[in-house]
């Protein structure tokens, strides 16, 4: 999936894909850290990829853009390793 989703339908589709393809064992959330019309949230997941059975830990930062009180864009940032 793309690291960026724009528009409600794209954000919903990405969420549906995530749930269908991952078994979440645990997660932690940090934030949010707001700045004007955007905010950042940190995530750490312990998940298993359903199609492969591979279990791994994943960390990401999500940057959300808000317009008229609704999230209209989400971008995800990962460690380069």
Tell me about this structure.
There is one protein chain. The protein is an alpha+beta fold and 81 residues long. Helices cover 17% and strands 64% of the residues. It has one helix at 8-21; strands at 4-6, 22-35, 38-49, 54-67, 70-78. It has a five-stranded antiparallel sheet with strand order 1-5-4-3-2, with helices on one face. Strand 3 (38-49) and strand 4 form a beta hairpin. The protein is globular and about 40 Å long.
What secondary-structure arrangement, pairings included, does this model have?
Layout: E1 4-6, H1 8-21, E2 22-35, E3 38-49, E4 54-67, E5 70-78
Antiparallel strand pairs: 1-5, 2-3, 3-4, 4-5
The total count of strands amounts to 5
How would you write the strand order of the largest sheet?
A: 1-5-4-3-2
**What is the overall number of helices?**
1
Form type: globular
**Major pleated sheet:** 5 strands, antiparallel
User: Which structural category do the helix and sheet elements fall into?
Assistant: alpha+beta
Keywords:
five-stranded antiparallel beta sheet; alpha+beta; 64% strand; 81 residues
In short:
With 81 residues, this protein is of the alpha+beta class. Helix content is 17%, strand content 64%. The mean pLDDT is 90.
């Amino acid at each position: 999936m793309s690291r960026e989703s724009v528009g409600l339908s794209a954000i919903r589709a990405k969420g549906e894909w995530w749930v269908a393809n991952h078994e979440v064992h645990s997660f932690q959330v940090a934030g949010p850290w707001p700045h004007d019309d955007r905010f950042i949230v940190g995530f750490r997941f312990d998940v298993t990829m359903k199609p492969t059975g591979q279990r791994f830990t994943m960390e990401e930062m999500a940057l959300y853009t808000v317009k008229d009180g609704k999230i209209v864009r989400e971008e995800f940032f990962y460690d380069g390793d």
